[in-house]
C-alpha cells in the first residue's frame, strides 16, 4: 500500500495543466467567449454545434453552441465559406478574432478566419428540425438527442447547478455526506411498491438468492441515514430511489432522486422546518443567480402563466385525515397558492418510525409535509421515535419486530432525539422551473412501459 | 405552476436561520469547540456520545464526540456527578464553560456545570467495547454501529470530503453534472455480469416486464454520458454501479461508486490523462488539507507500513496482451511501486466503443488505464470511436448493430472526437488511505451472500 502524499508526489512531475480547456492555446468555451470584456481582436478557437445559419449577400452568420450556456456565439464569415457545408446540427471548429459586435443583440462576435466542419448532420434524417419548436412529447422519443435543444439544455444545466448547490448547502452547514445503499434487504417500510434485484437469467447461481436473502431497490435512505446520524450528528444523502408503481402520472417516475437529511439532538418540528427552508432557499437563490437565462427560458416558453408575484404567506395546519393529491391541491389553493407546511398527522396513517405526540384523543405523530403549488408534496419529514418502548410497540403493531432489531439497537445504545426529511429532487425542479411533466426534468426518465437506452 | 422567485418571496418571512446549529443559543459542535481560539469561560452547550470516562479523586474526565472530528472534547466535572451514569456509548448534553486546558494534549476543555444523560448504553450488550481496538472483520458484523468507532468515523469523513472535492473539481473546470440512469435496457456492454430488475413478486404485473423490455442495473454511465457530451461538451457523473459477480475479493463489491467523465473535441490520450491526473491530485490535496487527522489515523493504525516516500516517477507503456491482476501488480512493482499509465491495448481485447489506432500489425485502440500500488486498476479510459463506419463495423462484429442504432446516431448527427474515463471511488479511497479491504471504505457493503440492513 501507498500513502496519499507519496502518490501526489509521484504524479507531480507528469503534467501541470488541470484540464484541457486551460491549455496555452486560446481555446475558449462559448460561455467564456460571450463574457469576454473589451474584445479587441484576440485570436481564439471555439468549438461546438451549429444552431443556426443565415446567409446574406456578402456575409454568413452562424450561431455556435457548446452547451456551456443557453446563448450561442455569433460567428461572422465572408462568402468564401461554403454555406451548404455549414448545416444546422453539424459540429465545427472555428478560428478567428473575437471582436465587439456592431449589433445590440450580443456583446461580442467571432470574425471567422477558418471554419472546419468536424461532423456533418443530415437535415433530412435529423429528428430535430431547424427553427422548429418541438413539443416536449415529441422530444421524449429521442432521449439521445433532445439534450441538444434549448429547453432541455436549460433544464439540465439548472439540474446540474441545483445539484452542486445542494451539496454546498449541506457542506457549509456541517453535514457529512453518506452514500446510503441502493440495494437493500429492507422490504417492509411501506413506502410503495418495490423492485426486486437478482442476477440476470444468464448467470442464475445455484443458490436461491445472490445475497442469500431477497434484495430490493431502495425506496428511501432514511433508516440508513439514522444509523449515521448516531455517529456524525448531521448527515445527508442525495441519490436515486425507486418505486415499481404502475403510474403514468406527470408527478411520478420509477427512478427518481431524493435529497434526504437526518439530524441528531433535534427536538422539535420547528427546527426541522428551518433546515428544509434553508435548503430550498439557498439552492433556489444559487440557481437564480448562476443561470438566470436558463430559468427565464423555462418560465417564458414552458410555463407562460408563470409570473413573479409579490405576496408572501405561509400556513401551518393541523390535519386529521390522510391527504390525497386532490386535498393537497385544495389546501395549497385555499392558502392563497402559497407553499404550505402541514404538520401532525394521525399516528394510524403514518409509518412506524414517526414520533408519537401523545396527544390523545387526536393521537398524532410529529410529521411535516411541505406542499407547493402545481406539484403537491415537495418535502416530507418527521421527528423519529427515539424512545425504545414506544418504537418497540409500533414495530410489534406492524409485525416488524424481528426484522428491525438493528433499528431498535439504535435506541438501546446512546439514543438521541432526532428528525429528518426527504425532498423529491425532480419535483423541486418542476416547482422552480414550472415544468409540467416530471419526465422532462430528468435526463433519462424511467416509468411503466418505458426504459429507453 | 409557480415561479422560483415567487416561492422564495413566499418563504422569506417564515424563518431566517438556515440551520439549527446557527441558533442564538451557544450550542457548539465538538469541532467548533476544539477550534475556539482564546477560550476564556464562554458558556456553551455541547452534545455527543461518551468515548471515554476517567475518574480521579475529585474530578471526572469525559471525552465527548459528535462525529464532526476525530478528536473528542474533554469535559471536566467535579465529583458531584455520578460516574456510573456516564457510561461509554451514552449520549449526553453538557453545559459549561469553555476554558484553556492546563494539559498539553488539548487546547481547550469544557468545565461542566450540567451534564444530562440523553440515552444510556448498556456496556454488557453493546458490541463495541471500551478501550478495545476491534478488528475490521468484527466491525463488519455491525454495519449499524461500526460508524461510531474512530476508524470508520475517519474513513467516512474522508469519503464525504472526497465526494465534495470531486464535485468541486468538475464544477470549477466547467463540467455539467449528469444523473445517468441506474436502471437501463443496455445489457450488452460486456463490462461484467448484470443484475436484472423486476417488480417484487408481491405485485407481479400481467405483462412480462414492467418496462416492456428486460431492465438491468447499470454497469457504467459512459454511453449515457456520451449522449450528453454531444450537447454540453464536458460532462461528469458520480453514482452507483453494479456487478453480479460471485466474488469475495478485497477489491470488488456488487454495488460500488464510479466517477465518470466525458469530453467532446478531445483528440488524444495525453489530454485525457491530464484530466485524470487533475482529478486525482485536486481531490487528494483537498482531502489532505481538510482532514489530515483522519488520513493520519488510517495510515498509522490501519496501514502501519505506510510511509511518505520521496521519489517521483511515472511510466507510460505500450502493451500487447490482456492484463490480469497479477500482471498489474507486477507492472506497478517493476516501475518502482509508482502509479503507471498503460496505454494502447489490442483492439480485439477491448469493447466496441474504443477508438481504433489503425496501427496494424499491432492493431490497438486508444485506451488508457492508471494502475496504482496495492489496488491495481484505479482509472480506465479511452478515446471513443467517433467515425461512423469504424463504429458500424465494430458493432457488426459484436452483433450489436440493432441495439445500438441510437449510439450510431450520435455519429450521424454532428459527431465529434471525444474521450472519457471512469475512476472507481472505493478503490481511490483504498489507495489514499491504505485500506486493505474495499468493504471498509463504503458505509453498507454489498457482495455475494451479504446485504446487511
From TrEMBL, chains A, B:
SUPFAM superfamilies: Class II aaRS and biotin synthetases, Nucleic acid-binding proteins
Record has Transferase as a keyword: no
GO BP of this protein: asparaginyl-tRNA aminoacylation
Alphabetized UniProt keyword annotations: Aminoacyl-tRNA synthetase, ATP-binding, Ligase, Mitochondrion, Nucleotide-binding, Protein biosynthesis, Transit peptide
Keyword Oxidoreductase found: no
GO molecular function term, any single one: ATP binding
Classification via InterPro entries: Aa-tRNA-synt_II, aa-tRNA-synth_II, aa-tRNA-synth_II/BPL/LPL, Asp/Asn-tRNA-synth_IIb, NA-bd_OB-fold, NA-bd_OB_tRNA
Enzymatic reactions: tRNA(Asn) + L-asparagine + ATP = L-asparaginyl-tRNA(Asn) + AMP + diphosphate + H(+)
Cellular component terms (Gene Ontology): mitochondrion
UniProt-annotated location(s): Mitochondrion
UniProt domain Aminoacyl-transfer RNA synthetases class-II family profile: residue ranges: 156-443
Matching PROSITE patterns: AA_TRNA_LIGASE_II (PS50862)
EC number, as in UniProt: 6.1.1.22
Principal localisation: mitochondrion
Family assignment from sequence similarity: Belongs to the class-II aminoacyl-tRNA synthetase family.
Protein name: asparagine--tRNA ligase
Gene: NARS2
Amino acid at each position: 500500500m501507498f500513502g496519499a502524499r507519496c502518490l501526489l508526489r509521484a504524479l507531480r512531475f507528469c503534467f501541470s495543466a488541470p484540464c484541457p480547456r486551460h491549455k496555452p492555446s486560446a481555446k475558449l468555451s462559448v460561455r467564456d467567449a460571450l463574457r469576454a470584456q473589451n474584445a479587441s481582436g484576440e485570436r481564439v478557437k471555439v468549438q461546438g454545434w451549429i444552431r443556426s445559419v443565415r446567409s446574406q449577400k456578402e456575409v454568413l452568420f452562424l450561431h455556435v453552441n457548446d452547451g456551456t450556456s443557453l446563448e450561442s456565439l455569433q460567428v461572422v464569415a465572408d462568402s468564401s465559406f461554403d454555406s451548404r457545408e455549414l448545416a444546422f446540427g453539424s459540429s465545427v471548429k472555428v478560428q478567428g478574432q473575437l471582436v465587439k459586435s456592431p449589433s445590440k443583440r450580443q456583446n461580442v462576435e467571432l470574425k471567422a478566419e477558418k471554419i472546419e466542419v468536424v461532423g456533418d448532420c443530415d437535415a433530412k434524417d435529423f429528428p430535430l428540425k431547424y427553427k422548429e419548436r418541438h413539443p416536449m412529447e415529441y422530444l421524449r422519443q429521442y432521449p439521445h438527442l433532445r439534450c441538444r435543444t434549448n429547453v432541455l439544455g436549460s433544464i439540465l444545466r439548472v439540474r446540474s447547478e441545483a445539484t452542486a448547490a445542494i451539496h454546498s448547502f449541506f457542506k457549509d452547514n456541517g453535514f457529512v455526506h453518506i452514500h446510503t445503499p441502493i440495494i437493500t434487504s429492507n422490504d417492509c417500510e411501506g413506502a410503495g411498491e418495490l423492485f426486486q434485484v437478482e442476477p440476470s437469467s444468464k448467470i442464475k447461481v445455484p443458490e436461491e438468492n445472490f445475497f442469500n436473502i431477497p434484495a430490493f431497490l431502495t425506496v428511501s435512505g432514511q433508516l440508513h441515514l439514522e444509523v449515521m446520524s448516531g455517529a456524525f450528528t448531521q448527515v445527508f444523502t442525495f441519490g436515486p430511489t425507486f418505486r415499481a408503481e404502475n403510474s403514468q402520472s406527470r408527478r411520478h417516475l420509477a427512478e427518481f432522486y431524493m435529497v434526504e437529511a437526518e439530524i441528531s439532538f433535534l427536538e422539535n418540528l420547528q427546527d426541522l422546518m428551518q433546515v428544509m427552508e434553508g435548503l430550498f432557499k439557498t439552492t433556489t437563490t444559487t440557481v437564480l443567480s448562476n443561470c438566470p437565462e436558463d430559468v427565464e427560458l423555462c418560465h417564458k416558453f414552458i410555463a407562460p402563466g408563470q409570473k413573479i408575484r409579490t405576496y408572501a404567506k405561509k400556513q401551518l395546519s393541523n390535519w386529521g385525515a390522510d391527504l390525497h393529491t386532490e386535498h393537497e391541491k385544495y389546501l395549497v389553493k385555499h392558502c392563497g397558492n402559497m407553499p404550505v407546511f402541514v404538520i401532525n398527522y394521525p399516528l394510524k396513517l403514518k409509518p412506524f418510525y414517526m414520533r408519537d405526540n401523545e396527544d390523545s384523543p387526536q393521537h398524532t405523530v410529529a410529521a411535516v409535509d411541505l406542499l407547493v403549488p402545481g406539484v403537491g408534496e415537495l418535502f416530507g419529514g418527521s421527528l423519529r421515535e427515539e424512545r425504545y418502548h414506544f418504537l418497540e410497540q409500533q414495530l410489534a403493531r406492524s409485525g416488524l419486530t424481528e426484522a428491525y432489531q438493528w433499528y431498535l439497537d439504535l435506541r438501546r445504545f446512546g439514543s438521541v432525539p432526532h428528525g429528518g426529511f426527504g425532498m423529491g429532487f425532480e419535483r423541486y425542479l418542476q416547482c422552480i422551473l414550472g415544468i409540467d411533466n416530471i419526465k422532462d426534468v430528468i435526463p433519462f426518465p424511467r416509468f411503466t412501459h418505458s426504459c429507453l437506452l
